[in-house]
Amino acid sequence: MTMDRRTVTQMAADLRARKVSSVELVRACLPRIEASQSSLNAFVTVTAEQALAQAQAADRELAAGRGGPLAGVPIGHKDLFCTAGVRTTCGSRMLENFVAPYDATVVARLQAAGAVMLGKLNMDEFAMGSSNETSYFGPVRNPWNTDLVPGGSSGGCAAAVAARLLPAATATDTGGSIRQPAAFCGVTGIKPTYGRVSRYGMIAFASSLDQGGVIAQTAEDCARVLRSMAGFDPRDSTSVDNPVPDYLAGLDAPLAGVRIGLLKEFFDTGLEADYERRVREALAVFERLGARLCELSLPNIPRSVPAYYVVAPAECSSNLARYDGVRFGHRCRNPRDLTDLYKRSRSEGFGAEVKRRIMTGTYVLSAGYYDAYYLKAQRVRRLITADFERAFAEVDLLMGPTTPTPAFALGAKSADPITMYLNDIYTISANLAGLPAMSVPCGFAGGLPVGLQIIGPHFAEQRLLHAAHRFQLETDWHTRVPERCA
Ligand code: GLN
Question: What is the pTM of this model?
Fold first, then answer.
C-alpha cells in the first residue's frame, strides 16, 4: 500500500491522459484509508461503494473525451457539508444519524466538475475547536506524530491530505479552521473571501464568519479546486455576485515588485523562536523573488480573539437553537413534556465545548449585556476591518505565522479553553474582516511543520495563490510527507 503522492493537478492530467483510471485511484485509496483509521481517525464515514460508482461514471466520461476539470479525482468533504443520502454528522452526537435530503452547493459543484467523493472527514463538534478533540467521533491524530493534535476544526481534512490518503479536501474556516490545521499538518489551505463560496448546505456555526475553502498539497491544487467551488449562489443570501476569475491563470508570473507587509502584532508575544525563524526564512525567499517587505502595525489586532469569542458564540447560540429534538437530530427517550424533550435532547446531543459556546453566546445576547458585549465586539470588528483597509492601501499582501507554535500534544490544552482559544490568535482577524487567507508549509520547528500565513484584500484570492505558488516553486516543504505514512 504505497502512498500516492500525486497532486490534484497531476491526477487530473494522468486521468485525462488515461494513464490511470478513476476506479484504480479509488481502489488504491480505500484500503489506505481503512488502514489509517485506527491511528489517524481522519474519516467519520467512508463512502466506498458510492465512490466506485462515481469513479466508473467519471471513467466513462473521460473515455468519451468529456468530463469536468476534476473528472475522476478523489476528494473528501469536511463532515459539515451536506451530502444527499450520506450522513452529515458535524462531528456531533446531535447529528450522528442525520442524512440531509440535499447536497451542499459546494458538494454539488465539485461533483459536477467530476470529483469523486471518498467520504466525510472528521472535525471538531460543530467546527468549534482548534485540536479536533471535541469531535463526538474521537480525536483525529497528527500524521507527523500521533501523540499530537492535527489542529482543528478541519483536523480530519488536514491529516488526510498530509498522510496522502487523498489529494484534497473541502473544509471551512470560521476563525482559522482551514489554516491552523493546514499549518499543523504541513499542507496548504485557503480560506476565500467571505461570500466567495456558497454556504448553502454547509452546517452553520457562526454565519457571518463561516467560509468554505480547500486543503490540498499545493497552492496550484487549491486554485484548481477552488475554481470549481466558488461563485454566486442565489440560495445563499451572503454569496457575492462577482465573476470567479480563473485562479490558475498567471500563477507563474513573476513576483517582482509585490509589496508584502509584516504585521508587527503577529510577531509579538507567544510566537515560538524556532517558528519565527522559519517564517522569516520564508519571507527572505519572497525578497529574493523581488518582493518588497515592510513592517506594519495594526493596533486593533490584539482585540481580535476577545471580539471573536463574543461574536462567534453569539451566532452559534442562535444557529444551534434549531436542534431541539423535534425536527431533526438527536431526540431523548421518553420525554415527559416538551420542555423535557428540549432540555434532554440538547443536553445529550451536544458536547461540553458546544454547550460552553451556547451559554456564552446566550449571555452576550441577553438584555442588558447585548450593548456591553455583543455590540462592543461588533464595533471592534469594524475597527479591525478598518485597520486592514489601511494596510492594504500600502501593501498587496500581509504575511506572518499561521500559529504561534507547531502542533501540541493531545490533551495539552483541552482542560483550559482560554489557552486553546489563544491558538487562533493569528488567524481570527482575517475572519472578522472577511478577508481571504492561506497557510503554506514553510519549514519545520522541532521536527513539526510550520505554516506561513498570507492574507490579502477582499477577493484577492488569485494574488494569494500566485504568491504561494511562486514560493512553492522555490521550496519543497509542501512535498514533505510524514515518514510513518510513506
Ligand atoms: N478554533 C476556532 C474556534 O474554536 C475556529 C474554529 C473554526 O474556524 N471553525 O472557534
Answer: 0.98
